[in-house]
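User: Sequence recovery, please. Input:
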């Protein structure tokens, strides 16, 4: 279990030293808001220090799937949905921001970054499709996978893109809904914060 007192202690220190909030754009996994109650845990911590915009990946992709099974949704993204989502994300987000993407959402952000989306940093969790990428966005990039995720990139991929391999033992693809991973990701992002919000910031659902 993640020790959330670490986050709380960091929160207190940041309150004393911060001035303004950075923008953070969060992109959901392929399920979007339909199976995304876990996202509220991220928002609960991160909204205190970031101006957050949240994108449902299905909405970005204009997905129209009659039967919502994992196979059908995944196929819709692979067969054009990801490309549509990238195009829409670039149109919607004009200002530099930090990006956090889960699974398919991380792939969308990665591809958009390669196409010129202004990024300050990119943090992806379980975004297995980036294993096919031969370039990375020109910003600070963190990729996180569970060691039981069979579709995660191989070690040579990290070397090719000059990225650090960070694997969580005992976790699979959907690890981002686990409180231990939620704490880890929030802590990583909060450590990057150097400025304090003036007040509790709004969450914009695009």
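Assistant: Recovered sequence (206 residues):
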């Amino acid at each position: 279990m993640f020790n959330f007192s670490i986050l709380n202690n960091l929160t207190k220190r940041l309150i004393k030293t911060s001035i303004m909030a950075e923008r953070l754009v969060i992109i959901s996994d392929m399920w979007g808001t339909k199976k995304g109650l876990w996202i509220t845990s991220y928002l609960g911590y991160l909204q205190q220090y970031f101006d957050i915009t949240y994108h449902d990946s299905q909405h970005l992709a204009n997905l129209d799937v009659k039967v919502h099974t994992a196979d059908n949704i995944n196929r819709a993204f692979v067969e054009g949905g990801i490309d549509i989502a990238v195009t829409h994300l670039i149109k919607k987000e004009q200002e530099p921001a930090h990006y956090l993407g889960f699974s398919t959402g991380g792939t969308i952000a990665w591809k958009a970054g390669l196409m010129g989306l202004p990024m300050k940093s990119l943090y992806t969790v379980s975004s297995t499709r980036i294993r096919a990428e031969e370039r990375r966005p020109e910003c600070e990039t963190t990729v996180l996978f569970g060691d039981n995720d069979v579709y995660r990139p191989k070690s040579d991929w990290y070397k090719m893109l000059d990225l650090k391999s960070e694997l969580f033992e005992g976790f699979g693809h959907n690890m981002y809904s686990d409180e231990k991973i939620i704490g880890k990701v929030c802590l990583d992002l909060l450590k990057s914060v150097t400025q304090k919000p003036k007040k509790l910031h709004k969450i914009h659902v695009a």
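The helical segments are 4-17, 39-46, 57-60, 70-92, 104-114, 155-161, 179-191.
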